[in-house]
Design a protein that fits this description.
With 282 residues, this protein is an alpha/beta fold. The protein is built from nine helices and 14 strands. The chain folds into two domains: 124 residues, Periplasmic binding protein-like II (D-Maltodextrin-Binding Protein, domain 2, 3-Layer(aba) Sandwich), CATH 3.40.190; 103 residues, D-Maltodextrin-Binding Protein, domain 2 (3-Layer(aba) Sandwich).
C-alpha cells in the first residue's frame, strides 16, 4: 500500500469515527433534553386550578393546605361565570378546574370541541325550586312565572324538577338536555322564563318561583325555607368533579390533586361552608 493510499484510508477511518462520535453525542443530547421534560411533566409541583368565586374559595383554601403536605402547590384562579374555566383549561392557562358536572362538560365538548377529562368527584348541589311568594308547589297560581337557567344542561335539569313536582310533563324519551320546546303538558299554563344561571336566583323576588342551582341560591340569599321542591340525590348524574386536559389524567400531580380534595379534612370544611345544601360526592 502506497503512502498516499494509507493516508486516504486513515483519513476515511477518522471521518467515520468522527461521524459516529457526533451521532452518539447528538443522541445523548436528545436524551438529556427529553428525559427531564418528561419527568417534569410527571412530577409537576405547582399548578393552577380554576374555580368559581364564592363559597368554594373557602373549601379550596383547605384543599391547598392538604396538597402542600404532598409537595404540591396550588394557585386557585377564580372565575365569575361558567364559560371561562373550560376555555382557560383548553388554552393551557390553568392545569385543572373544578366547577362542572358531566352533562355540562358533554355539551361544552360537543359545542366547543374541548379536550377535557374528569379525574375526581367533588360535591353535589341538588337543584331546587325556590319561591318567596308561595310556601308550597300546590300554591303556585295559574299562569305563574317560573324562572329556569338557560344553559343547555341546567335547563333540562330544571325542567326535570318541575316535571317531578307534577307541574309540567315532558315529551317521552326527553333526555337531560330538554328545553321548553319539550314541554307537552302545562295544565296551569305556567310561563317558563329562561334566564342566565347567575341571574335566575337574584330574580326570585320578581318571579313566582325559580329553579336555581344551589351555589347560586346561596349567593342570592335564598335558604332551605324558600325551597318548595328539590331533585332527588340518589343516582344523580350532576355530581361535580375536578377536570384536566385530556392526556394528563394519569400524571402524578393529578393524583395528588384529587387526594388533596377527597379527604375528611376537606369534607368537614365543605359541610361547614355549604351547611347541608351541598353534599360530598366521593
Amino acid at each position: 500500500m502506497t503512502e498516499i493510499t494509507k493516508s486516504l484510508s486513515n483519513r476515511n477511518a477518522f471521518s467515520r469515527r468522527s461521524a459516529l462520535a457526533a451521532l452518539f453525542a447528538s443522541v445523548v443530547t436528545v436524551i438529556s433534553f427529553t428525559v427531564p421534560h418528561q419527568a417534569l411533566a410527571e412530577d409537576k409541583t405547582a399548578i393552577k386550578v380554576g374555580i368559581i368565586s364564592g363559597e368554594d374559595e373557602d373549601v379550596w383554601r383547605v384543599v391547598k393546605a392538604e396538597a402542600a403536605k404532598q409537595g404540591l402547590e396550588i394557585e386557585t384562579v377564580v372565575f365569575n361565570d361558567y364559560t371561562q374555566p373550560n376555555e382557560a383549561l383548553e388554552r393551557g392557562e390553568i392545569d385543572a378546574n373544578a366547577f362542572q358536572h358531566q352533562p355540562y362538560l358533554d355539551n361544552q365538548i360537543k359545542t366547543q370541541g374541548y379536550h377535557i377529562t374528569p379525574v375526581g368527584y367533588t360535591g353535589l348541589w341538588p337543584i331546587g325550586l325556590y319561591s318567596k311568594k308561595h310556601a308550597k308547589v300546590e300554591a303556585l297560581p295559574e299562569a305563574a312565572v317560573i324562572g329556569v337557567p338557560n344553559d343547555p344542561s341546567n335547563e333540562g335539569r330544571a325542567l326535570r324538577v318541575l316535571a317531578d313536582a307534577g307541574l309540567i310533563k315532558l315529551k317521552d324519551g326527553t333526555g337531560i338536555l330538554a328545553t321548553v320546546a319539550d314541554v307537552v303538558e302545562n295544565p296551569k299554563k305556567f310561563e317558563i322564563k329562561e334566564l342566565d344561571a347567575g341571574i335566575v336566583g337574584r330574580s326570585v323576588e320578581d318571579l313566582d318561583a325559580a329553579v336555581v342551582n344551589t351555589d347560586w341560591a346561596l349567593k342570592s340569599g335564598l335558604s332551605a325555607d324558600n325551597r318548595i321542591a328539590q331533585e332527588p340525590v340518589a343516582d344523580n348524574p350532576y355530581r361535580n368533579f375536578i377536570a384536566v386536559k385530556t392526556g394528563n389524567e394519569n400524571e402524578g400531580w393529578v393524583k395528588k390533586l384529587v387526594a388533596a380534595y377527597q379527604n375528611e379534612t376537606v369534607k368537614a370544611e365543605f359541610d361547614r361552608v355549604y351547611k347541608g345544601t351541598g353534599v360530598a360526592a366521593y
